[in-house]
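Many introductory courses stop at the sequence. We go one step further.
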Amino acid sequence: MTTTFQERGRAEGAVHVALSRCRAQPLTPGPFPAKRARGDTKERGQMQSNIDLKGLRIAVTGGTSGLGLALVKTLRTRGARVAFVARSAASVKRVARETTACGVLGDVGRKEDIDSIALEVTWNLGGLDVLINNASSLGPTPLALLADTEGEDFLEALAVNLIGPFRLTKALFGALASSAREGRGAVVVNISSDAAVTAYPGWGAYGASKAALRHLTAIWAEEAKAEGVKFLSLDPGDMDTPLHALAVPDADPTTLKRPEDAANEIVASLLDALQAGAPLALRA
């Protein structure tokens, strides 16, 4: 018998420990600065790092480690109302307690979880202004050549990196379009990679799924113009994260970007999108 999302949450403990605090936060959007000319992404991230995001309603998938955790912490520090999604009940509970963000237990790679995730997010945030599809899967680990990649590993990469973001965006599109109609703005950020545009041996499952996500983002951007929902495909670069360590165990962490820096750059890009009059061009 299939276990429902709610049943799994109850069975694994009191996961949503910060939900009442999240619902109590104000819904009014904070002021946005005058639109800046687009320059270096890191410089814009630093310039906009002190902008108050109070009232902005943001969902982040894969929010308990790496870039996702850095995004949750950065957004909460700057006043945004945040719901994050992750698969581990213990990790969700810990991060919710540490950040007072809304913890949502679920797996974006599972079709059965999508509707429940969307309902949890919109109910606890009172709507949605920004969706950041960050959760990612490498596929086979250690990384493998395509000729040595099992179909199941390839399917896992597609489920988490492509089909999951498609399904969750679709499930939340009505809430995002409503936010756009209300004048709050609405943005979907899909986290991409240079592997989406460069063929790296051994990165076949990951690269192919991220390339498909990048093109999916471009199509969504065209189709969603009439609704006022903007779409971004953003490559955060090589970061010192558990995912990168899993992919390249012998990498020197000192040569990698801090996820906190990448989070600030992403926030700068989504602020640009919220202030822009039309969907932004893709940057990946």
